[in-house]
Amino acid sequence: MDIERKHAELIDLFVKQAAVLDGPALAGLVLEVTSHPSLFAFSEILSVPNLAKLEGTQYSSSLDVLRLFAYGTWGDYRSNAGSLPALSSDQVRKLKQLSVLTLAETNKVLRYNQLMQELDVSNVRELEDFLINECMYAGIVRGKLDQLRTCFEVQFAAGRDLRPEQLNNMIQTLSNWLDTSDNLLYLIQEKIKWADTMSEATKKHRKEIEDKVEEVKKSL
Amino acid sequence: DNSLLRQVSSLLRRLPAMESEKFQDDFL
Amino acid sequence: EEQVVVIREKLAELYESEQQWSKAAQMLSGIDLDSGMRMVDDTYKLSKCVQIARLYLEDDDAVNAEAFINKASFLVSSSKHEVLNLQYKVCYARILDLKRKFLEAALRYYQISQIEKRQIGDEEIDEDALEQALSAAVTCTILAAAGPQRSRVLATLYKDERCSKLKIYPILQKVYLERILRKPEIDAFAEELKPHQKALLPDNFTVLDRAMIEHNLLSASKLYTNISFEELGTLLGIPPQKAEKIASRMIYEDRMRGSIDQVEAVIHFEDDTEELQQWDQQIVGLCQALNDILDGMTSKGI
Questions:
Q1: Residue A130 to residue C227: CA distance in whole angstroms
Q2: B23 interfacial to chain C (CB closer than 8 Å)
Q3: Which of A148, C20, C45, C248 has its CA 20 to 30 A from that of C116?
Q4: Which segments of A120-166 does DSSP mark as H helices, in order?
Q5: Residues of C in contact with A44 (CB under 8 A)
């Protein structure tokens, strides 16, 4: 929520700018947006009609870059570097940050070798410095680094822009969570009823014993 | 709403709430 | 005796005008404040003790200054003289600072920075002086031993609006947020320090070095579940054996939670809370995130 709050003003600003720009100015805006240290969400800007108009023009690569930052990773860029413009160091850093968020979508525990491969990093110190300074201190990720198990346990990761095809998975996860929660509540309810029943039975049994004891005392 | 979708995506990534070895031991 | 006192005071004035502070202090310390032969009121005694302490402090002589401040402390509680009381407090804070009792000094500096009056007796209290006291409080807190006590003082300072206007604020923020401090930031901070705050210690680290290493170690404990001595040394910029030694001392003194496996050469950090409690906290966080989404949906009419 904190991330989204920080995003809201920036996104608003850039969306308004994008709505009145075209051609080279828009390409410049895309560069600014994809280099901005506090912005990790791009779908709102991507949906501004002026951006779509860049398709097929000499500035269509800017649109491709924006799409890459919205949905892609550093690995995707490396595979398509030939057809995409060169990225500045700020853009490279941001794309790598976004790649960590993508990896965290599927796994809570991220192995160091997987991260080093994805982020093009050759040693553990460099990887950990990146995760600490560019991810944890940037507030987009929270977690613990485990050198013995050479992994990064993610406790929180900011959400990336979603493609429509990702929605089904999310809905399924939510349904599963809902079902598990309902089941658990039902089980707890049953346990409460069972506990009440046992308690009543125990009280009744105790009363019967006490009554018998009284009877025997009287008869003696 | 993209912002809400991103928040939901982030929320779902918090599940399960804990997954460490030590937690599994303590939980059991 | 009266005449000797006058001569001593005059000589002390002369020494002061020549900035020979310790000599001036020694001249005044020869005055017999417990004389049975003349009437010496408590205010006079207090003023002399404080004056002598202040003179010794000009030469950074904490030992002698402390001797006189201790004498003054018996008199200050019953003193109504606001200027002297303030001077006493400032001296005391500076002595603690010089003696490297940084946390205590910080608290006293902070108290002084919170003075509301702008005129005490004949003395005007200007904003710069209060800002200096606040800055000194922040500096001393950062130099204090990392641990729970320091964290409490850091929180107080960080939440004080006035600190956000200090030059030293960026480093206060990083220290409060328990973030690792890098060399350029430490070097910039070092420029603001006094010589005794950068003095060399028996273990060949300076006061500043030790404070920064301990802070960074504590910051690392928030980021790592465990770390090898080798990597820890690299992170802290010191040899691995020294990193182990400092870590073990901090754990022993209960300023950091963890354990050391010398066989594997690894330090395991422990959280302040147990796993199951952390689970509870994660669930709380999850529910709050869910609430935020629901609030967001409501505000957007969904």
A1: 16
A2: yes
A3: C45
A4: 124-129
A5: none
- Asked casually if ipTM beats, i.e. exceeds, 0.85, the reply is no
Angle between helices C82-98 and C42-58 (to 10 degrees): 40
CB–CB of C293 and B20 under 8 A?
no
Instruction: Taking residues A135-148, report their average pLDDT.
Output: 94
Burial code of A166-191, b = ≥16 C-beta within 10 A, e = fewer? eeeeeeebeeeeeeeeeeeeeeeeee
* Parallel, antiparallel or unpaired: strands A151-157 and C119-120: unpaired
Q: What are the backbone dihedrals phi and psi of residue A143, each rounded to the nearest 5 degrees, phi first?
A: 180, -170
Query: What chain B residue is nearest to C295 in terms of C-alpha separation?
Result: B4
Residue A79 has what pLDDT? 93
Q: How many helices (H) and strands (E) does chain C have?
A: 14, 5
> Which residues in C lie closer than 8 A to residue A144 (C-beta atoms)?
223-225
Q: pLDDT per residue over C64-120, tens digit each?
A: 999 999 989 888 888 888 888 889 999 999 999 999 999 999 999 999 999 887 777
Give C-chain residues touching B25 at CB under 8 angstroms. Answer: 275
A145-150 average pLDDT score: 94
Token pair listed for C235? 């992170």
Average pLDDT, stretch C273-277? 81
Sequence-separated (6 or more) residues with CB below 8 Å from residue C162: C113, C131, C134
Nearest-5° angle of CA C212, CA C216, CA C217? 115
Distance CA A76, CA A69 (A): 10
In the numeric block, which tokens belong to residue C76? 């200050």
Nearest to C125 by CA among C89, C101, C153, C160: C89
Contact list in A for residue B11 (CB cut-off 8 A) is 159
CA C42/CA A145 separation, integer angstroms: 62
Q: What is the pLDDT of residues C170-213, one digit of tens each?
A: 999 999 999 999 888 999 999 989 988 988 888 888 999 999 99
Contact assignment for A156 to B13 by CB distance below 8 Å: yes
Selecting from B7, B11, B17 the residue whose C-beta is nearest the C-beta of C282 gives B17
Q: In this complex, do B15 and A41 lie within 8 Å of one another by their Cβ atoms?
A: no
What does pTM read for this prediction?
A: 0.82
Give the ranges where A84-166 is alpha helix by DSSP (H).
Answer: 89-106, 112-119, 124-129
Tell me which chains share at least 3 CB pairs under 8 Å with chain C: A, B
Which one of A123, A131, A137, A147 makes the best mutation probe of the C interface by having the most chain C beta carbons within 10 Å? A147
Q: Check pLDDT > 70 for residue C251.
A: yes
User: What is the Cα–Cα distance from C69 to C53, expressed in whole angstroms?
Assistant: 6
Q: Are A110 and A10 in contact (CB under 8 A)?
A: no
Q: Which runs of consecutive H residues, i.e. helices, occur in chain C?
A: 2-17, 21-29, 42-58, 62-76, 82-98, 102-113, 127-143, 148-159, 169-176, 183-190, 207-223, 229-236, 240-252, 275-299
What mean pLDDT do residues A35-50 have? 94
Q: Does the pLDDT at position A1 exceed 70?
A: no
Whether C297 sits inside 8 A of B4 (CB atoms) is yes
What's the pLDDT at A33? Answer: 96
Contact C266 A128 (CB under 8 A): no
